[in-house]
Specification:
Elements: H1 2-11, H2 16-26, H3 29-43, E1 48-54, E2 60-67, E3 78-80, H4 84-92, E4 96-98, E5 120-128, E6 131-140, H5 148-171, H6 177-186, H7 195-204, H8 206-211, H9 216-222, H10 225-235, H11 238-253, H12 258-262, E7 271-275, H13 290-305, E8 309-314, E9 322-325, E10 331-334, E11 345-347, E12 357-362, E13 365-376, E14 379-385, H14 393-396, H15 407-427, E15 434-438, H16 444-457, H17 461-469, E16 472-475, E17 486-487, H18 489-503, H19 507-513, E18 525-526, H20 527-533, E19 537-540, H21 543-552, E20 568-569, H22 576-579, H23 582-592, H24 614-643, H25 647-654, E21 662-667, H26 683-690, E22 697-702, H27 710-721, E23 732-735, H28 740-749, E24 752-755, H29 767-773, E25 777-781, H30 786-789, E26 796-798, H31 807-831, H32 840-853, H33 859-874
Parallel strand pairs: 7-8, 7-15, 8-14, 15-16, 16-19, 19-20, 21-22, 21-24, 22-23, 24-25, 25-26
Antiparallel strand pairs: 1-2, 1-6, 2-3, 4-5, 5-6, 9-10, 11-13, 12-13, 13-14, 17-18
Helix pairs in contact: 2-3, 3-5, 6-11, 13-33, 15-16, 15-18, 16-17, 24-25, 24-28, 28-29
Length: about 900
C-alpha cells in the first residue's frame, strides 16, 4: 500500500524529462505551457489548472495558459498582484490553499473567466533562479481541502515549469507586445491628455470607443488577442503603439522637470490634495462640474510639472446622475452603477502589504472604507469607497452618489473624505508635508492632522494647532451661500464626538471652531469657517473673488480691516493638453515649436501665434466647428429617438444648425445665478437675430440642474422648449447629459462662449479659458477670471462691471447689455469679410486672445503659483523670507 501511495505521488510530479517531451510536442513556450497545465489538471484531478504570467512591470499578472477557464481569456484576463487569491500568491511568494474561495477576504470574482462554479483554490509561485515569474493555480468545483503532500507536489511541479515561463517572458511569447503595451497605456490616465495615445484606442473600434464613453480598459477587455492583432495589422498600429508606449515611459522616468528644480522639499513629504470630486476624464464619473474638473486639471498639471502631490477623494459608485429630458423638457435623473472592473483602478496596498481599509468611529457606529488607487501620469489619485463588508447598509451606500442625500449623508461623506483620507495616507506610509483643501468639504482632515500631531509629539491641542496650520492651504471656490456646508450641533457631535474627545475639546470649543462668532450658540458649524481658522494660507480663485471673499468673511476676522483679511487669490487655469483640440495642437506644433506645450505657462511661447496665416487659423476653426455641429446633431437625434419623437422631428434635427452661422455656446450648471435664460429677455429681438438670412445666429446649450433645484430645472426647461418653437427650433439645440466629453466638443468648436452669471457670484469660471485655447472668443459678464482678463480687444464684455442692489434691475440691465453687445459688436465683426471671405477683424481678436491669455489662464501657471506661494513655504522649503515689523 505504501508503495502504491509512493508511486501515486511520483506520478503527480512533473519531471524535467516530461517537460522536455511536452516542449518537443509543442515547440513554442506558449504551447508547452498549455500542454503542461493540461497534464497537471489530469494528474491532480482538478477541474482547472492555469498559469499566470508576471508582466514586465511586475505589478500585474496575465492569464497565459488554462484548462477549465475560458480560452478566450488567455492573454486578456489581467489582475494586479494585489488583487484576488492569485495575486495573493504573487504577493506572499508562497502557496495559498483555500477550501471555499468566496469566504476568503481576498476573493475577487473575474466575470469573464468563467470561474463561477469553482470553490476550492490552490496556487503556488513560479520561481526561476530565485525570481518570481508567475503563479500556477488549480481549482475544483467541489470544495476540497488540499493536503500538505498535494501542496508540496504542485510546488515541485511549479519548479519544473518555471524555466519555461521565464523563457516565454523573455521572448514575449505569451502576450503580444502590442497588447501588453496597450494595456500599460490604458492603466495610466496619462493617455487621456496625450492625443497620440487616445487616438490608438479610437482607431481600434471607433463605434465601440464612443459607446464605452472612451474607456480603454473596457474596450481592451472586449477585444480578443486575435481580433486585436488583426485590427492592428489592418491599420498598421504597431509602430504607433510602440511610439506611444516609449513616450509614456520617457514621461514617467524624466528627472529634469520643473518640480525637480523647484519643489524638491516636497519629495519626502508630498502635498495631499483633498477634493470631494475629481474630473479627470469622462470615463471616470466621480465629478459633477467645475470644482471637479478644476481638481482634475490640477492633478494633471502637477503630473506634467512633476510636483509631488497625491489626490484624495471619494469613489462614487453611481457617480453624478445621468440626465434625460422628457417630452415636456423637464429634467429626469437616473443613476447607473459603475463597474469597478472596467476602471483603471487597483486596490491600494498599505505598509503591512494588505489592502488598506480605514475605520472612523462615530457616536452611531463605525464607518469603514477601502481605498482605490489610480495612476494619473506621475501622480496617484486615491478614492475611498464605503461599499465594504462590515458597514451598515446605509453606509455601504454612503459613497454611491455625488452630492446626493441629506445633511447627514453629506457630513458622513465629508468625515470619510477628510479623516478617512488622511488615515489612508498614513496606512500607505505617506506623511504629507502640506494639506491642500480644495473647498471646505475636507476640512475635518485638519482636525485629524492635529490629533496625529498631538499623539506623535505629546502636545496639547493649542500647541499642535499652529504646527499643523502652517502646513494647511485652503482654497475657497464660491461666494454662493449654498456652497458652504453648515451642520447643527447634533450632527457634529454624532460624527466628530470621538475625535473631539481625542483632541481634548469640549462640545462648545469644537463648535466654536466652525462659527464666525465662536460664542454664538445659535450659529451652525460651517466647514469653510473651520478651514479658514485652521489654515495659514487661504486663497480665492480670482482677483474679484478674493475681494468678495474678504467681504464675506469679515465676521470671522473682526479685528482686521477688510483689506487685511488673510485671503489672497490664485486665479484658476485649465490643463492645456486636456482641452486643446488635436487640430489646434498640431497648428501650435508647427508655429510655436514642438516643445511649446511643456512651456505653455511662458508668455513668450505664445507670441508665434501672430505669425500664423489667417486662412490656416480660420480653416482649422471651421473644421472644429463642423465637428461640433455633427456631434450636436447626432446627440439631438439620439435624444429625440429615446423620447419617441416623430420622424419629422428626427429629420429636422438631422439638419439643425448651419456651419455658416455664428455659433454661440453655453454649457455649465443650471444654477439660477448663472442665468442661462438671460438671452431670453427680449424674445422678439432674439427671433429676429437668429432668423436673419444674411447674418444668422445659433445657440448650443448643455448643463445639469441639481436634482433638488426646482428653479434651476425651470430655467433649463425654458431653454429646452425653444427646440419646439418654430421660430427657434433649428437655431437652439440643448444637448443632454453634460459631461467632460460634451464640454470638450463645445469649447473646441464654438465661435463665441456665452457666460452671464449675476456678478459677483462667479468665483472664477474656467470653461471660457478652454475656449481661448481653441481660438473661440468670450462674451461674458465682467466676473470671475474675465474681470481680470478682458482688455477690450480679446473678446467681448457684457456691461461695465457695475451691479445693482435690486436683482430685477440688475438682470434687466444685463439682458439689455447682452443684446446690445451681440447686435452692435459681435455679429457685425463676425460677418465683416474681405474678398477672400475671411473675417480679418475677428481673426485678429482670436490671435490676441490666444497670445494674451493662453499662458495666464493655464493650469501649469496655476500649479506653479500654488507651489511657489503655498506648498514650498508651507513645507518650510523657502531659502529666505522676511517679515515686516509692526
Amino acid at each position: 500500500m505504501e508503495q502504491a501511495l509512493h508511486e501515486s505521488k511520483v506520478r503527480n510530479v512533473l519531471t524535467l524529462e516530461e517537460i522536455a517531451n511536452l516542449a518537443a510536442e509543442g515547440g513554442q513556450p506558449a504551447e508547452t505551457l498549455m500542454n503542461v497545465v493540461a497534464l497537471i489538471a489530469k494528474r491532480f484531478r482538478t477541474d482547472v489548472c492555469s498559469a499566470y504570467l508576471l508582466e514586465p512591470d511586475r505589478a500585474n499578472l496575465v492569464l497565459a495558459a488554462t484548462v477549465g477557464l475560458r480560452k478566450e481569456c488567455v492573454g486578456s484576463l489581467r489582475m494586479a498582484v494585489h488583487e484576488g487569491l492569485t495575486g495573493l500568491v504573487a504577493e506572499l511568494v508562497r502557496p495559498v490553499a483555500v477550501e471555499q474561495v468566496k469566504t476568503h477576504p481576498r476573493f475577487k470574482y473575474f466575470r469573464d473567466a468563467g470561474e463561477d462554479a469553482y470553490q476550492s483554490f490552490l496556487g503556488v509561485p513560479l520561481i526561476d533562479r530565485g525570481v518570481l515569474q508567475g503563479v500556477l493555480v488549480v481549482q475544483t468545483i467541489e470544495a476540497r481541502v488540499f493536503s500538505e503532500d498535494e501542496i508540496r507536489m504542485l510546488t515541485e511541479a511549479a519548479t519544473q515549469v518555471a524555466p519555461v515561463v521565464s523563457e516565454a517572458r523573455t521572448l514575449d511569447r505569451f502576450i503580444a507586445p502590442l497588447q501588453e503595451r496597450l494595456w500599460a497605456l490604458a492603466r495610466n490616465l496619462w493617455w487621456s491628455w496625450d492625443h497620440n495615445s487616445s487616438s490608438l484606442f479610437l482607431d481600434l473600434d471607433p463605434a465601440r470607443w464612443n459607446e464605452l464613453n472612451h474607456n480603454p480598459v473596457a474596450l481592451l477587455s472586449e477585444l480578443p488577442l486575435a481580433k486585436l492583432e488583426t485590427r492592428a495589422a489592418e491599420l498598421m498600429l504597431h509602430s504607433r503603439v510602440n511610439y506611444a508606449y516609449r513616450r509614456m515611459l520617457e514621461y514617467l522616468e524624466a528627472d529634469r522637470t520643473w518640480g525637480a528644480k523647484h519643489a524638491g522639499v516636497l519629495r519626502p513629504h508630498p502635498v495631499a490634495y483633498f477634493s470631494a470630486e475629481f474630473g479627470v476624464h469622462e470615463s471616470l464619473p466621480v465629478y459633477s462640474g467645475g470644482l471637479g474638473v478644476l481638481a482634475g486639471d490640477h492633478i494633471k498639471s502637477a503630473s506634467d510639472l512633476d510636483i509631488p502631490l497625491i489626490g484624495v477623494g471619494l469613489f462614487y459608485g453611481q457617480g453624478y446622475f445621468r440626465q434625460r429630458l422628457d417630452l415636456n423638457g423637464w429634467q429626469r435623473e437616473e443613476y447607473l452603477k459603475t463597474d469597478v472592473n472596467q476602471m483603471a483602478m487597483e486596490v491600494a496596498i498599505g505598509k503591512d502589504r494588505r489592502p488598506v481599509v480605514v475605520e472612523i468611529e462615530t457616536r452611531s457606529g463605525r464607518i469603514r472604507a477601502k481605498v482605490w488607487r489610480l495612476k494619473v501620469g506621475r501622480r496617484d489619485l486615491l478614492l475611498l469607497d464605503s461599499d465594504v463588508e462590515g458597514n451598515a447598509p446605509e453606509d455601504r451606500e454612503l459613497t454611491s452618489r455625488l452630492y446626493g442625500g441629506d445633511l447627514r449623508i453629506r457630513i458622513r461623506q465629508e468625515l470619510l473624505l477628510g479623516v478617512g483620507g488622511l488615515r489612508a495616507l498614513k496606512a500607505l506610509g505617506v506623511s504629507p508635508g502640506v494639506l491642500h483643501l480644495n473647498e471646505g468639504h475636507s476640512a475635518f482632515a485638519v482636525l485629524e492632522a492635529i490629533r496625529m500631531r498631538m499623539e506623535e509629539e505629546g502636545l496639547a491641542f493649542d500647541a499642535a494647532v499652529p504646527r499643523v496650520s502652517r502646513e494647511v492651504v485652503f482654497t475657497t471656490h464660491t461666494p454662493v451661500p449654498a456652497g458652504h456646508d453648515r451642520f447643527d450641533a447634533g450632527l457634529i457631535e454624532e460624527h466628530i464626538g470621538p475625535l473631539r474627545e481625542a483632541l481634548g475639546l469640549s462640545k462648545e470649543s469644537l463648535m466654536g471652531l466652525g462659527r464666525e462668532n465662536s460664542s454664538n450658540g445659535d450659529e451652525l458649524f460651517c466647514m469653510t469657517v473651520l478651514a479658514l481658522r485652521l489654515s495659514r494660507r487661504a486663497n480665492a480663485v480670482s482677483a474679484l473673488h478674493a475681494e468678495v471673499s474678504r467681504a464675506m468673511w469679515t465676521g470671522l476676522f473682526r479685528d482686521k480691516l477688510e483689506d487685511d483679511i488673510p485671503i489672497g487669490h490664485i486665479t484658476n487655469g485649465v490643463h492645456v493638453p486636456s482641452w486643446l483640440a488635436p487640430q489646434m495642437f498640431r497648428l501650435y506644433d508647427r508655429h510655436l515649436g514642438t516643445d511649446w506645450h511643456q512651456r505653455s505657462s511662458e508668455a513668450k511661447i505664445w507670441l508665434g501665434i501672430e505669425d500664423v496665416d489667417d486662412g490656416e487659423l480660420w480653416e482649422t476653426h471651421l473644421n472644429l466647428k463642423s465637428q461640433l455641429i455633427e456631434f450636436v446633431r447626432r446627440r439631438a437625434v439620439e435624444q429625440a429617438e429615446r423620447r419617441g419623437e416623430s420622424q419629422e422631428v428626427l429629420q429636422r434635427l438631422e439638419r439643425a444648425l448651419s456651419p455658416d452661422a455664428l455659433t454661440i455656446g453655453f454649457a455649465r450648471r443650471f444654477a439660477t445665478y448663472k442665468r442661462a435664460n438671460l438671452i431670453l429677455t427680449d424674445m422678439e429681438r432674439l427671433a429676429s437675430m437668429v432668423n436673419d438670412p444674411n447674418r444668422p445666429v445659433q445657440f448650443v446649450f448643455a448643463g445639469k440642474a441639481h436634482p433638488l433645484d426646482e428653479p434651476g430645472k425651470r430655467v433649463l426647461q425654458q431653454i429646452a422648449d425653444l427646440m419646439r418653437d418654430p421660430k427657434f427650433s433649428d437655431k437652439f439645440v440643448f444637448v443632454e447629459d453634460y459631461d467632460i466629453n460634451v464640454g470638450r466638443h463645445f469649447v473646441q468648436g464654438v465661435d463665441v462662449w456665452l457666460n452671464n452669471p449675476r456678478r459677483p457670484l462667479e468665483a472664477s469660471g474656467t470653461s471660457g479659458q478652454k475656449v481661448v485655447l481653441n481660438g473661440g472668443l468670450n462674451l461674458s459678464v465682467l466676473d470671475g477670471w474675465w474681470a481680470e482678463a478682458f482688455d477690450g480687444m480679446n473678446g467681448f464684455a457684457i456691461g461695465t462691471g457695475r451691479t445693482h442692489s435690486n436683482m430685477s434691475v440688475h438682470d434687466t440691465r444685463d439682458g439689455e447689455d447682452l443684446m446690445r453687445t451681440l447686435s452692435e459688436e459681435v455679429i457685425p465683426l463676425y460677418y465683416t469679410r474681405d474678398r477672400d471671405g475671411l473675417p480679418r477683424g475677428w481673426i485678429k481678436r482670436m490671435k490676441r486672445t490666444i497670445r494674451k491669455l493662453g499662458w495666464r489662464f493655464n493650469a501649469d501657471r496655476m500649479v506653479m503659483d500654488y507651489t511657489q506661494k503655498c506648498y514650498v513655504p508651507a513645507a518650510g522649503g523657502t531659502s529666505s523670507e522676511m517679515k515686516a515689523g509692526s
